[in-house]
């Protein structure tokens, strides 16, 4: 069995132990063994990053551009291979996985360009003969803690801006999906970036993540994951004065008004709710539908769900792959029982299923699941399930739909299906979400614009696009006497 080591100070370094990386579509398929590091590995990685920071942070912008562009080009050249790996270890369908890999490559190429677009300001002082310069500088060593549901795109959209703005990085990927992170680390290692600028430490979150968050040499933490862990990180960073950026999930509403195009509304709801096995923080799990269209919408969505083929993520014809792990599958099925107990009516799915390809492989497959006649206060409508489970809430009109959509502790993404310019315009302004979609799935965002939410979904500066500089740089104001 191939063993994959951590990357520390430019050297592939074994961990204290290794753990198998198993294919959720085929539990007999072990992709490889990946290092399980410890606190000592974090110490070594931070020391290497600290040593590399002075030279890298003041290096020429052309060198940084060339390195990031080279990384992006190699990712794009290998998108089929890397997409197959992603589908194999995470369970996203192969076409979706290839698309995610392509996005990772595009992110690196975008931030290669940002290396050449670093901007500041020159202003006159209110005092005579004095000039003022406002510039941005890197913040230091950055700890990046990434989730399992986007195992190459999310590491990319954290690593690329960190490096572009002159920081050094220690990446801790999710334990369930080390393969994509390791492959990305190998590409970065071969790009010519100096030793120590980028470091990979794999292992348990309670060990590696905690050591990163509490290390005095780490200037900032960027985390994507659960609300509970994120809040703990925020508290720890506040105590030590670290800069912190958190993306923590959502309970995203999709409104469907009476005047919506029914076929369009059904398709975008199916795409948002069930593709990627519903394992997206931007997925629509609350479908808020007005009275007149409600019966037709539910009937049409049930028919659309019946055509979703569940099976091996790498097999042709699969629409929805497996749930990522046994623990996640158990959580999803537990929410099905909770919803039933609360009085929600199960309209489709709700159970574990066999692979549609007939291969006989054992995997974590679950049918796309729909509850109808649900109430806003039910747990199924308040808590993030993070699986292929959606519920329908019936409302009288747009005003009630908006109120229900905003009645959530989260605020990441929100959508509306309507042909009314009045309602679309009002919703864009009054939706309490960081990202709003009109006649589009709530899941699906561009890499060159800000990503992030409000309320319990996000904390700190936005990710992606030019707004990434707000987190990965600090502002300096310099005065000069003429």
From TrEMBL:
Region Disordered, residue ranges: 1-24
Catalyzed reaction equations: 4-(hydroxymethyl)benzenesulfonate + NAD(+) = 4-formylbenzenesulfonate + NADH + H(+)
Similarity comment: Belongs to the aldehyde dehydrogenase family.
Highest taxon of the lineage: Bacteria
Primary enzyme class: oxidoreductase
Gene Ontology molecular function: any one: oxidoreductase activity, acting on the aldehyde or oxo group of donors, NAD or NADP as acceptor
Protein name: 4-(hydroxymethyl)benzenesulfonate dehydrogenase
Subunit structure and binding partners: Homodimer.
Function, in words: Involved in the toluene-4-sulfonate degradation pathway. Does not discriminate between the sulfonate and the carboxyl substituents and can also be involved in the p-toluenecarboxylate degradation pathway.
InterPro entries: Ald_DH/histidinol_DH (IPR016161), Ald_DH_C (IPR016163), Ald_DH_CS_CYS (IPR016160), Ald_DH_CS_GLU (IPR029510), Ald_DH_N (IPR016162), Aldehyde_DH_dom (IPR015590)
Ranges of residues in domain Aldehyde dehydrogenase: 15-477
Organism field: Alicycliphilus denitrificans
Pfam families: Aldedh
EC number: 1.1.1.257
Gene3D superfamilies: Aldehyde Dehydrogenase, Chain A, domain 1, Aldehyde Dehydrogenase, Chain A, domain 2
Record CDD domains: ALDH_KGSADH-YcbD
Active site: residue positions: 247
Keywords attached to this entry: Oxidoreductase
